Amino acid sequence: MQVSTVANGGGIKPVQGGSCRSCGRGDFVEILDLGNLPIAHRFLSKPDEKEELFPLALHFCRDCGLTQILNAIDPEILYRDYNHNFSSWKPEPHLTSEIDMIFSHGTPRAALEVGCNDGKFMAELMKVGVSSGVGIEPNPIPAGIAQGRGLTVYQEMLSPRLCDGIVESHGQFDLVVARQVLEHLLDVEAFFKCVDRVLSPDGMLFIDVPDFEPGFRQGDCSVIWEEHVSYFTRSVLDNLLCRYEFTSVASENFNFSGGCLSLLARRSSVKEKVGATSESTQDLSELAGTFSGRIANYQNALEGALSRARKNGISVVLYGTGCRANMLVNGLSLGHLIDYSVDDQKERQGMFLPGSRLPIHSSEKLQAEEGQVLCLLAVNNENEQKVSSKCAEMLGDRVTCISLHAPKDICQELKKIENIILAA
């Protein structure tokens, strides 16, 4: 089943209406239209199951450089039946470095984490000096795990009313944490108003967000996800903080989940207007103008390579069925060129991918392959070596693994396909 193709293959389209989540202005251009896609996290229990499709387009603010989804899916629809925990299984090799960053600039005693998930980060903070840890997590499954770790967790959406109640019960906090949260928020201004309520005057704000820049430069549509309504680079995040009177005191990029930008900030007495005068914003504007075209070029090259591989008797398997995998397969209409998918999460095995409806098997399915196998790695870069080694143990030199995700050079990876075709 082909769901969509890159719709506006080479340019940008002016947009009327709406206001930017970062700067509040409205000078937008549409830089990518992926058509109608299914929700990436909504797996199917049977191949003929009906599913909802929603338009997905990206817009670029020429005033501040923030790329964003203007017509976001209603959260009541997007998070309907969203009662599971995605990330407790996911290794976080950068977690210790993030905590070191915080404690190198102060010793917080009371911390509040917005979107605390299963409480893992807060539990680690409390091991090294935080004595009072409070979390906000509306999803009952990870919230229950966090409570099992002994944390106080409020199972509600962030709001001024909730924040006032938390401060009344716990006082203000030396540290407010928001990891992998800001990119999901429809109302960024409301988030900072809540931070202002709960953070002590000399407190620290720690944010980490997916780093959009590597995928933006690569022309990688797998960095797009309907849940992520805003796409941050370092310069864009700095500008946003300035608008709300914060200034960065430390930052670092980590190779986690396609790229992670972590930043520690304190309040500043200077409020700056966010504008498009910086050299970095101009660079982002140039990238925006060619983003769709670079995705279309990659799509054509990948489609051609996979088609030639299959004609030469090579099995094509997708390893990993996370949201980035589904966005890539559906956004580039690759489902008809892939034989099946495998995933090590037992909860997903036996289900079908949204859109493409590819069956999901355990990795043991690979052992039944008798010929050459092309394994498309749709796992995060930090896990690729582990998966590649596992495939080699099962198939030896009959398997070739290629990366589909930035920050790897995804175009360079395609040369590996041509090599196995020549050898077939």
CATH class of one domain: Alpha Beta
Largest sheet, order of strands side by side?
7-6-5-8-9-12-11
Corresponding CATH architecture of one domain: 3-Layer(aba) Sandwich
Quick one: how many beta strands?
17
Average pLDDT works out at: 91
- Which oligomerization state do the chains in this entry correspond to? single chain
CATH topology of one domain: Rossmann fold
Our measurement of the CA-to-CA distance between the termini, rounded to an integer number of angstroms, reads 28 Å
Q: What amount of the residues lies in strands?
A: 15-25%
How many helices? The count is 13
Helix content: 25-40%
Give Rg in angstroms. Answer: 22 Å
* The CATH homologous superfamily of one domain: Vaccinia Virus protein VP39
Shape: globular
Structural class: alpha/beta
Low-confidence stretches: 1-10
For the largest beta-sheet, the strand count, sense and barrel status come to: 7 strands, mixed
Taken in chain order, the helices and strands follow as EEEEHHEHEHEHEHEHEHEEHEHEEEHEHH
